[in-house]
Write a structure and sequence with these properties.
Elements: E1 9-12, E2 34-36, E3 45-47, E4 59-61, E5 69-70, E6 80-84, E7 90-92, E8 106-108, E9 110-116, E10 119-120, E11 125-126, E12 129-132, E13 144-148, E14 156-159, E15 185-187, E16 196-202, E17 213-218, E18 228-229, E19 233-238, H1 243-246, H2 248-252, E20 256-257, E21 260-261, E22 270-273, E23 281-287, E24 294-298, E25 302-308, E26 311-318, E27 321-323, E28 328-334, E29 346-353, E30 371-376, H3 417-421, E31 431-436, E32 448-453, E33 481-484, E34 494-500, E35 510-511, E36 514-515, E37 519-524, E38 529-535, E39 554-555, E40 557-561, E41 565-571, E42 576-582, H4 585-589, E43 593-598, H5 600-607, H6 611-628
Parallel strand pairs: 9-13, 18-23, 19-23, 33-43
Antiparallel strand pairs: 1-30, 2-8, 3-4, 5-6, 6-7, 9-12, 10-11, 13-15, 14-16, 16-17, 19-22, 20-21, 23-28, 24-27, 24-29, 25-26, 25-28, 29-30, 31-32, 34-41, 35-36, 37-40, 37-42, 38-39, 38-41, 42-43
Keywords: Copper, Metal-binding, Oxidoreductase
GO molecular function, one term: oxidoreductase activity
Protein name: Multicopper oxidase
Length: 647
């Protein structure tokens, strides 16, 4: 059916409109972005599809491939990205993007991480912000990072990027690099081979909660057609103090400090959303929260879901979408012709915290304001009179398992009964516990604090001694290193894991003063994983598993039910050190993470071929040590420097 010509607007409010210009375009040459062509400029060069017009649009440049290729920029051919006019070969939605991709150009970006004491994201002045180029969210992709913070290191992780054979660019302090010292820079170099939308954020302690994050889009085909696309929509939460000031509530919840019981964990105070509108929209949704899984819905509208976590899926329809922390979705907004709107032109956009997967302060109001935007069909822009869409579930759970069918199928090798038995490892179980903080130079061990862990110990990374610099160990038990064997050199080898929730406490009820969420968003770096099973039931034993091997859902963030389990599998074809962690920021800081050291010997050989990257690693660690060893650089000179996991 032909879509009518009408205007749709999405209104930003609660102070968010002041954060950026009316439209935030990708960085482009006039903003200091250098593009490097390795061949004379020739077709195919074209503006990013569906994004309006003007010189500010980023240009897709495949001139290295020769002039025989063309991009069919048509709303009816979104499944095809490039087509060879002579041979009819295509890069399309069915192309195996893990093994074959078109040749683009180099893009060089430079950003600065800045202190900022004048942020106002939700109508309340926020004095603890740390921002990229002075804006929130940060600009729409960048690579070279300069740390201009006063008391923090930093590092940037490009969430969901596979980074094949490029672990040193993963941006995790204590794992893949030392933190970027104040006044110093780090250049992240990698090939962007996956397409879709994701985000980048600081992986230094709780820094992204304070604002160090932004969206990333890699243009490519989609599994359904659409008319126009809009800027990424970031769904977040916010507290009015620095996360570093509130983290003690996670550490000491239920414990006595100076004779008083600490009530915790930290509570969020507002919802944040940014967005704009167009025609028949491709919406790019990203949950960048600290603590909240969201239900996203637009009154009286439905969506067609076409991508989850950079994985194109067979299109399916939904009236609402459950989005865990770190998860991303591409959806096509299905709009109504005028004669079917019953005289209504204005509709609420709602971001609803999922039941028992959020923790908002009571001061936010008895009913937290979930109406975070307005969808307009004309320029009159009145207040909507619509009520919520019908049949919206607020349950904290992933999208239905059976709906997430990857367009590019995987067949995972089946486990024998004996191999299944190896999955029944008790150290893959999530636990709450207490421990004493490790000693630091001139600071004794302690105090006793809370932790989360999933491999017997809470993680605690050593910023000055990242794992990548001592691959042969021995590893401290709190490094929580899980080694994947390198005895098998085949790139078709797989690793299988079961992770068990193990929390029988009723969701939303405290456990010794601590909040147990209905689900943990578990994120694995450097890989998509196949989700062989996801269950709300308690794990019994390996023989009771019902595993799906033929094209199971795959993604890089999955919600682990609190007393259920997940079984995941990933190819061991990406040598390196990779973090895996809960993406509730408070939990990761409290230790809920581990490291995957993948095919160590192959990784050591790979590093010998990357002298530039290794030199940058060494120079960065030297700069960090020089800065860190002068205690006058610290927020508390002579006191404890690191009071969380570092992840």
């Amino acid at each position: 059916m032909k879509i009518e010509h009408y205007v749709i607007h999405i209104l930003r409010f609660f102070g968010i409109s002041s954060l950026m210009e009316p439209e935030q375009y990708p960085l482009h040459p006039v903003d200091g972005v250098t593009t490097v062509n390795e061949s004379p400029e020739k077709p195919p060069i074209f503006p990013a599809p569906g994004g309006g017009s003007g010189d500010n649009r980023i240009k897709c440049d495949y001139s290295r491939m020769g002039s025989d290729w063309e991009h069919p920029d048509s709303p009816s051919e979104r499944r095809v990205w490039l087509r060879n006019k002579k041979t009819s070969k295509e890069f399309n939605i069915s192309t195996d993007y893990e093994n074959e991709w078109p040749l683009g150009i180099k893009r060089k970006y430079h950003v600065e991480i800045l202190n900022d004491t004048h942020a106002n994201w939700d109508g309340v002045e926020f004095h603890g912000a740390k921002l990229i180029n002075g804006t929130f969210p940060g600009p729409w992709i960048q690579i070279t990072v300069t740390n201009k913070l006063s008391y923090n290191g930093t590092a940037i992780h490009f969430h969901g990027q596979r980074l094949l054979n490029n672990s040193l660019m993963d941006g995790v302090p204590g794992v893949t690099q030392c933190p970027i010292a104040p006044g110093h820079s780090f250049t992240y170099r990698f090939n962007a081979t996956q397409y879709g939308t994701s985000w980048y954020h600081s992986h230094y302690s709780l820094q992204y909660t304070d604002g160090v994050l932004g969206p990333v889009t890699v243009q490519g085909p989609t599994s359904d057609n659409w008319d126009t696309s809009v800027d990424p929509i970031l769904l977040g939460d916010h507290i009015h103090e620095s996360a570093f000031e509130r983290y003690y509530q996670e550490q000491f919840a239920g414990l006595k400090v100076k004779g008083n019981h600490v009530k915790g964990p930290p509570k969020m105070q507002s919802i944040l959303i940014n967005g704009r509108g167009g025609k028949r929209y491709l919406l790019r949704l990203i949950n960048t929260s600290t603590d909240t899984t969201y239900i996203f819905t637009i009154d009286n509208h439905n969506f067609t879901v076409i991508e989850a976590d950079l994985v194109p899926v067979t299109p399916y329809n939904a009236t609402y979408l459950a989005i865990g922390i770190g998860q991303r979705y591409h959806v096509v907004l299905n709009t109504w012709p005028k004669h079917q709107r019953n005289g209504t032109d204005d509709f609420w956009i709602r971001t609803i915290p999922a039941d028992h997967c959020s923790n908002f302060d009571a001061s936010a109001g008895k009913y937290l304001e979930v109406r975070q935007g307005i969808l307009y069909y004309n320029e009159k822009m009145g207040w909507p009179e619509t009520t919520e869409s019908e049949k919206v579930s607020y349950e904290c759970r992933d999208e239905p398992y059976e709906n997430l069918k990857p367009v590019l199928p995987w067949k995972v090798p089946k486990l024998s009964l004996d191999e299944r038995g190896e999955l029944s490892t008790p150290n893959s179980t999530i636990r709450l516990a207490n421990w004493s903080l490790p000693a630091e130079p001139n600071v004794p061990a302690g105090p006793l604090v809370n932790n989360w862990n999933m491999m017997d110990y809470p993680i605690w990374v050593a910023y000055s001694k990242p794992t990548v610099k001592h691959l042969d160990g021995p590893f401290d038990k709190h490094a929580v290193v899980y080694e994947v064997s390198d005895n098998e050199t085949s790139h078709e080898k797989w690793n299988y894991m079961v992770i068990i929730g193990n929390q029988t406490t009723d969701p939303g009820q405290g456990k010794n003063g601590r909040l147990v969420p209905a689900a943990h968003p578990i994120h694995l770096h450097g890989h998509d994983f196949a989700l062989l099973q996801q269950s709300n039931k308690s794990y019994v034993n390996s023989s009771s598993l019902d595993l799906k091997y033929d094209n199971p859902p795959r993604r890089d963030v999955v919600l682990l039910p609190k007393n259920g389990f997940i079984v995941i599998a990933f190819r061991t074809d990406n040598p390196g050190t990779w973090a895996a962690h809960c993406h509730i920021a408070w939990h990761a800081s409290a230790g809920l993470a581990f490291q995957v050291l993948e095919t160590k010997d192959r990784f050591k050989d790979l590093l010998k071929t990357k002298p530039l990257d290794v030199a940058q690693l060494d120079d960065g660690c030297k700069a960090w040590s020089e800065w860190f060893n002068n205690s006058q650089n610290h927020w508390h000179p002579g006191g404890r420097f690191q009071d969380d996991s570092g992840i």
